[in-house]
Design goal:
By secondary structure, the protein is mostly helical. It has helices at 7-10, 26-33, 37-46, 64-78, 83-94, 100-134, 145-152; strands at 23-24, 62-63. It has a two-stranded antiparallel ribbon.
């Protein structure tokens, strides 16, 4: 990510103006939130958003708080929070007794997870760069050190991506 971007540029939902509309069909809500209808149905089934009653004609009618909640969910996802973690954030947001320190605890854990991923990716890059350096280029694939490495390094199920390196 370009570090010169503001949060609103990097995460537009945080700075977007909301449509003036106060009620939405599922299609209108999906469009306003930038998600698919199936995503909205999934969020309903999993309890991330409330289930709404249908009109006599069978339409689901959503309200502005539903849009705000979906935009919150999407913003949290862009920051790397899982749907489970996002549910926790939503619960904290709705709580009369929760403290900002509770949100901070979740955020610090997310930062550590992100750092762990960065470390893993840096290690992967170093291995790949090393393999590129020793690649003979003009030999058959039977002598390719990259293919040999991939064929002999089987990842462990419970370790990081480089456990077998």
């Amino acid at each position: 990510m370009n570090t010169s971007k503001s949060l609103n540029e990097a995460y537009p939902a945080a700075g977007q103006s909301r449509p003036a509309k106060s009620t939405f069909t599922i299609g209108e809500l999906a469009h306003a939130a930038g998600v698919g209808r199936d995503t909205i149905r999934y969020y309903e089934r999993t309890g991330l958003i409330r289930s709404v009653q249908r009109t006599a004609a069978g339409y689901r009618i959503y309200e502005r708080p539903d849009l705000s909640r979906i935009l919150f969910i999407r913003s949290a996802q862009r920051l790397g929070f899982t749907l489970g973690e996002t549910q926790s954030l939503l619960s904290l947001q709705a709580s009369d007794t929760a403290l900002a320190s509770d949100v901070l605890t979740l955020t610090l854990a997310k930062i550590q997870q992100a750092q762990d991923k960065v470390n893993d990716l840096n290690a992967i890059r170093a291995i790949l760069e090393g393999l590129v350096e020793v690649c003979p280029r003009d030999t058959g694939t039977g002598d390719c050190p990259i293919l040999a490495f991939i064929a002999t390094k089987q990842p462990a199920n419970d370790a990081g991506p480089l456990a077998a390196a």
